[in-house]
Known about the structure:
Layout: H1 2-8, H2 24-39, H3 45-56, H4 70-80, E1 116-125, E2 130-138, E3 144-150, H5 155-169, E4 175-178, H6 182-185, H7 187-195, E5 199-202, H8 212-226, H9 234-250, H10 262-282
Parallel strand pairs: 1-4, 4-5
Antiparallel strand pairs: 1-2, 2-3
Helix pairs in contact: 2-4, 3-4, 8-9
Amino acid sequence: xxxxxxxxxxxxxxxxxxxxxxxxxxxxxxxxxxxxxxxxxxxxxxxxxxxxxxxxxxxxxxxxxxxxxxxxxxxxxxxxxxxxxxxxxxxxxxxxxxxxxxxxxxxxxxxxxxxxxxxxxxxxxxxxxxxxxxxxxxxxxxxxxxxxxxxxxxxxxxxxxxxxxxxxxxxxxxxxxxxxxxxxxxxxxxxxxxxxxxxxxxxxxxxxxxxxxxxxxxxxxxxxxxxxxxxxxxxxxxxxxxxxxxxxxxxxxxxxxxxxxxxxxxxxxxxxxxxxxxxxxxx
Length: 283
């Protein structure tokens, strides 16, 4: 028998193996998981434990009607081929061939407009397909200086937003902060900033807090514009983004700016800085 198993490439011990039926507890939990997935496919393993405990009387940490914990739910969901639906597209993909610049804003006091600008790209789901939005923001005043929308996520999208920001501001910043995405480490992007005499700063890897102000902008525009309206084309999306950003810059009061709008804070701060520079040159 052993020789025959060797010839056939079969494990000898597998001949005597009797498959064990699925435990009754697992069958019950799988049935509940299947029902919950049809009801809400966005629930993760943590929330599933809470829902099972609340709605089905499954106590998790004391006496248990069923042995339910997060790891067990994850294992059973893998066997069932279930996975929570959540946003997955990554816009910050590092190109290891390009240089990564250090983060220059740690312990830096930003006191005036155009001292630091920042930018980022975000993914925008649409009725058909998807698009990407790139925006350039002034760090001190939170004013959005330039933006661009495209159905491709290449460096030309970022350069268009950058040129629009420069045109709106009429100047360039002292420091420009980005993440480590391949668009911002590319030669086209970094050479443009260097030619303007701008210092390049980049977030630490996985450190979204290093660029927190523009990350907060993404949350606001998505929940207040993009998720509320169906944009069927990129042109419709551009009109919606333009309308919302105008509302954000010129109408909405900002608590961090003492209830001024970003535009109200950006223009006077910038004008004061320009006057001081002229006075220094005259002296």
